[in-house]
Q: What sequence folds into this?
């Protein structure tokens, strides 16, 4: 605490000169020995806030700062004995007034009238009572200095100060910002709230704009309710001010240079937003309500659909994008962040000025779902920052049926999680649309000023319950008794405007009638909609559309280019000291580039990235240990042992190379994978990779895998070329570090939705990664990547295997290594078990056993496998061998493919399966048992 106070004092030392220095010396003495300072000063210092007896802990500095500045300002420059004047009764009260001002800034929001229903139960806040600060009504006419208040005059009567504080901090805007650490940010917010008392004057034409948006919001809901009574629409009734908020946000952002706004939201108000903000044709929406088939795929419900359009603002055209989302309410938030980062990267916008992320949340989900915290945590990190996000919470004050605070959360507000990143939170009454407009503009300005997240808590209600088929009064009788009596937001605002003489009752009715007529005629109802949008604002997916699956695609690279890139990967700046083991890796890679040493996994993978960059494709790789690699095989980022500076050779291939983004991520799977999905769906020409620390850690992101990666194309026609590297292999490391749960991905495979591959050589990973970019088809790629194979002496490749004329092989046979006519038994397998099988066969000298590796399990390479099996004309048995338990792995999901091929070639052949026994856990936890099981399954596969 002491250092913080001193810092604040000395920031203002130039204002008060020696006075402040003298007071600082007194305070230092007081901290060491309170009895060593005069009594009047001890009394002043005793008033400062403390945290127990530990003066090293941090406390809010604003009260302390204002107290010291006041004392310094009023301190006479005479001898120290003269300082007793500060203890006069008026000056003591002045200090109390400053403390009271600070209390309103800190806690005023706790008594603000933010609930339009008036049902919100608030605890008493004694700090806001003048008597708490030893002030009484007798002091109301006394003039006091305002300290740091931005109220205009330097001093005012206490009653005026109180009135202005209540209007600013306890009205329909509850500003929560004093938890912010940065003093500059707090003062900036104060400078925006206090001069206008949180209620700036709104010009008549702006009032008309607000009423027009409320008319549209309410008009659509009424129309849908009458035309499609009882149909689920998750209407916005009770929260119509959201449309005012979004309209103000887009116009304000466009005025400040924003070119794109990407919005993520769940169900409530989505249809209203699509029609009244994005300009979706109402006729299209009506067709969805009537069940018309809109696409040739599975499709999705109407309140999950995304959309895009362009609207005009004062500073030009702005592209709007609404993210698709599943019913997992908050998972779209990190997807939006990824899409925004991709758009910013495309614009070379490292600050985040041109593309704005907006995430709209429900109050219960915002407080309850962990991905919200994960999304906030990524907001200022190198790999994931987007220049700040505007979070809009549609606060219904009730979940499906959960409305008691003690049941829905443990914090005071649903927005308290945002405090973890010092985000300001503006609670606002949804029935005061002018206040909603004000805090929205404030939020946009804050985000653009400080490039940080900001939260708008739009406190409202839901007039129809969870959905239109729900009867809410059964579980919330008191709330819905009040709602039945509650006038709509538009009705309240129209009455206000009529009383102000801004509009007549007839004009108000005419606005409602005109909007309904537009809906009935199927007309666009967004006046700012651009009918012929600027296509430069779009992501061009046309080169990637309409491609059918093909297994063969040449991915080789010129040998000389490979060697040139290999040498550049080994370049280390002069004076850059590399750690000893890393230096050996670099030295080995130099020999690999020269052809004097076989390529290992790390070198082949690095050459894949280098060649992709050389051909003009951006590369983005994130994950918890991607710089080094969890198993120390990659070392794409080198660390200077002298000063900890870093060097990334892949960033220094050529001056003209495209963007490389390679960052270790924070410890998250769900939000990070969702981010990378969003990025990949917005950057079709890039190789986008997420690598799990261990493959089974992807379990924490199962929502992303199920709802986006494997089904997004079928539901929403969203193409995605994301690559997932999931370390997989049974090495005796127990149940949590063995299996990437291959069976789960295979179970999700259908309609050529994803690719699932298990490469076993460096050349295979080289061609697999290159195929993902070079081929115009865009499908997610799931790679069961290795652990022990990263350094396996037999898992090597030559430069020639990476060179021109070669490609990824979905099936690797051995017909060139043995006489096919001698083979009586074929073992089919995937992954590293191949090397165990190969070595056991060599030990037993069994030349009648062939091993075929299936490197791509989906889409299953039936023709390639049939061709390989067809070479063996004297087969007597075929077995599938896997390391995983037989209720896991590829066995159940892939055996029908293999059996159909065998049956077509020889109906008398039957496929057998060999693996670990059926198990609930993925692997055993004892190395001895692991080795015993491995020995048994390998022997059984080879010997039968």
A:
């Amino acid at each position: 605490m002491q250092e913080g106070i001193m810092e604040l004092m000395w920031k203002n030392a130039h204002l008060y000169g020696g006075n402040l220095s003298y007071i600082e010396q007194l305070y230092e003495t007081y901290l060491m020995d309170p009895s060593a300072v005069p009594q009047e000063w001890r009394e002043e210092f005793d008033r400062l806030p403390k945290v127990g007896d530990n003066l090293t802990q941090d406390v809010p500095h604003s009260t302390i700062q204002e107290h010291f500045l006041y004392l310094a300002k009023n301190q006479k420059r005479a001898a120290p004995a003269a300082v007793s004047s500060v203890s006069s009764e008026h000056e003591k009260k002045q200090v109390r007034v400053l403390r009271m001002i600070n209390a309103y800034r800190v806690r005023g929001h706790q008594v603000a009238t933010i609930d339009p229903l008036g049902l919100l139960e608030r605890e008493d806040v004694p700090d806001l009572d003048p008597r708490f600060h030893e002030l009484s009504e007798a002091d109301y006419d006394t003039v006091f200095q305002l300290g740091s208040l931005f109220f205009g005059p330097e001093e005012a009567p206490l009653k005026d100060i109180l009135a202005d504080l209540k209007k600013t901090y306890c009205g329909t805007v509850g500003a929560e910002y004093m938890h912010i650490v940065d003093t500059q940010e707090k003062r900036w917010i104060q400078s925006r709230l206090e001069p206008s008392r949180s209620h700036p004057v709104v010009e008549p034409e702006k009032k008309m704009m607000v009423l027009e948006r409320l008319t549209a919001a309410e008009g659509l809901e009424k129309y849908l309710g009458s035309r499609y009574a009882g149909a689920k629409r998750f209407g916005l009734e009770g929260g119509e001010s959201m449309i005012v908020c979004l309209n103000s946000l887009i116009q304000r952002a466009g005025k400040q240079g924003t070119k794109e706004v990407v919005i993520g939201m769940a169900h409530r108000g989505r249809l209203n937003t699509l029609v009244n903000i994005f300009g979706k044709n109402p006729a299209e929406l009506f067709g969805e309500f009537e069940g018309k088939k809109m696409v040739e795929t599975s499709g999705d419900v109407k309140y999950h659909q995304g959309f895009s359009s362009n609207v005009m603002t004062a500073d030009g055209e702005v592209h709007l994008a609404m993210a698709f989302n599943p019913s997992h309410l908050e998972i779209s938030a990190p997807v939006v962040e990824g899409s925004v980062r991709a758009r910013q990267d495309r614009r070379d916008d490292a600050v985040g000025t041109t593309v704005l992320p907006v995430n709209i949340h429900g109050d219960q989900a915002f407080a309850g779902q962990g991905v919200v915290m994960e999304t906030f945590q990524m907001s200022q990190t190198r790999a994931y920052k987007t220049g700040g996000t505007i979070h809009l919470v549609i606060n219904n004050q009730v979940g499906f049926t959960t409305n008691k605070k003690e049941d829905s959360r443990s914090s005071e507000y649903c927005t308290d999680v945002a405090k973890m990143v010092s985000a300001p939170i503006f609670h606002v009454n949804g029935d005061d649309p002018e206040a909603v407009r004000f805090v929205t503009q404030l939020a946009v300005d804050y985000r653009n000023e400080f490039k940080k997240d900001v939260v708008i808590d739009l406190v409202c209600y839901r007039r129809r319950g969870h959905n239109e088929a729900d009867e809410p009064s059964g579980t919330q009788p008191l709330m819905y008794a009040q709602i039945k009596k509650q006038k709509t937001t538009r009705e309240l605002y129209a009455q206000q405007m009529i009383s102000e003489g801004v509009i007549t009752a007839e004009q108000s009715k005419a606005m409602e009638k005109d909007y309904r007529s537009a809906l009935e005629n199927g007309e666009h109802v967004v006046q700012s909609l651009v009918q012929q949008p600027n296509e430069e604002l779009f992501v061009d997916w046309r080169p990637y559309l309409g491609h059918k699956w093909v297994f063969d695609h040449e991915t080789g690279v010129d040998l000389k280019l490979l060697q040139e890139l290999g040498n550049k990967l080994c370049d280390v700046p002069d004076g850059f000291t590399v750690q000893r083991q890393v230096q050996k890796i670099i030295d080995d890679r130099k020999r690999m580039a020269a052809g004097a040493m076989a390529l290992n996994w790390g070198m082949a993978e690095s050459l894949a990235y280098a060649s992709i960059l050389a051909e003009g494709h951006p590369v983005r790789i994130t994950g918890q240990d991607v710089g080094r690699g969890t198993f120390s095989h990659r070392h794409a980022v080198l660390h200077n042992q002298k000063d900890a500076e870093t060097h990334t050779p892949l960033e220094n291939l050529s001056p003209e190379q495209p963007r490389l983004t390679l960052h270790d991520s924070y410890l998250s799977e769900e939000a990070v994978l969702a981010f990378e999905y969003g990025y990949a769906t917005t950057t079709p020409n890039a190789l986008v990779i997420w690598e799990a620390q261990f493959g089974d850690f992807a379990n924490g992101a199962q929502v992303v895998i199920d709802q986006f990666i494997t089904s997004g194309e079928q539901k929403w026609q969203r193409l995605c070329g994301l690559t997932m590297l999931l370390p997989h292999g049974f090495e005796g490391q127990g149940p949590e570090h063995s299996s990437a749960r291959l069976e789960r991905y295979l179970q999700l495979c259908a309609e050529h939705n994803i690719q699932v591959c298990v490469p076993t050589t460096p050349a295979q990973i080289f061609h697999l990664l290159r195929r993902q970019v070079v081929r115009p088809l865009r499908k997610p790629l799931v790679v069961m990547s290795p652990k022990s194979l990263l350094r396996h002496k037999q898992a090597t490749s030559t430069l020639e295997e990476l060179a021109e004329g070669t490609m990824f092989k979905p099936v690797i046979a051995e017909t060139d290594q043995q006489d096919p006519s001698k083979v009586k038994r074929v073992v089919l397998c995937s992954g590293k078990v191949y090397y165990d099988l190969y070595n056991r066969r060599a030990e037993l000298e069994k030349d009648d056993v062939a091993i075929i590796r299936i490197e791509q399990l989906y889409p299953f390479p039936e023709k390639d496998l049939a061709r390989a099996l067809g070479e063996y004309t004297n087969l007597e048995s075929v077995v599938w061998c896997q390391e995983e338990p037989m209720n896991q792995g590829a066995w159940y999901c892939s055996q029908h493919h293999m059996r159909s091929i065998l049956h077509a070639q020889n109906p008398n052949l039957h496929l057998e399966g060999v693996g670990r026994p059926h198990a609930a856990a993925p692997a055993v936890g004892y190395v001895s048992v692991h080795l015993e099981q491995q020995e048994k399954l390998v022997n059984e596969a080879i010997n039968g």
